[in-house]
User: What shape does this take?
Amino acid sequence: METAGAVYEALMAAGKPFGIANAGYRAIESLRLEKGYRAWGSDIGPDHTPLEAGLGWAVKLKRNTPFLGREALVAQAAKPLAKRLACFTVDDPAIVLLGRETIFRDGRQVGWLTGAGWGYTVAKNIGFGYVRNKAGIATDWLTAGRYELEVANERVPADLHLAPLYDPTMARVRR
Assistant: This one.
C-alpha cells in the first residue's frame, strides 16, 4: 500500500506520450460492449461454453491440443448449438438498456440480455444476450429473424449484430 501512489504516478508518466487517461467503470463497460469483449459473470460463466459465447477461436480444437473439457467441446461442435451470444442495438437514445431485458425473435421469447449499456463511440444502446433455440441456431436462422427487446414492459425494435460494432477488423487494436 505504501508504494501504490508511486506506482500510479509512474504508470501515468510512462503512459503520457501515448495519451493515457483515467477511465471509470461505465466508460470501460461502454468500450467493451462496443468492441464485443465478454464480461465474466454476465456474458460468460460456467453455464456457457466458448462455442456458445463466440469464443471458439480461443480453444483451437483443430490443433488437437489437450485441455480440460476438450472432448465436451468437440462433441458440442459436431451438432448445432442450442444457444448463441449475440449483440443487439436499439436506435432510440431515450431507451435505456441495463441488462436482463427479454429478447424476442419474430414475436417469440428466445432469451435475455446478459449485459447492456450506452455505446458512446457508436452512439447507440448496446446489449449482449444469448438467443436460444432447441432445434439449433445456424447463422442463417439467427440473421433471418426480426428482433425486439422488452424494456420497461414495452417491446422496442432491435438490430442484431454478429461482429463488434467498433473496429470489427481489429485494425486499431493491431496498430
The longest strand covers residues 108-119. The helical segments are 4-15, 25-35, 70-77, 139-144.
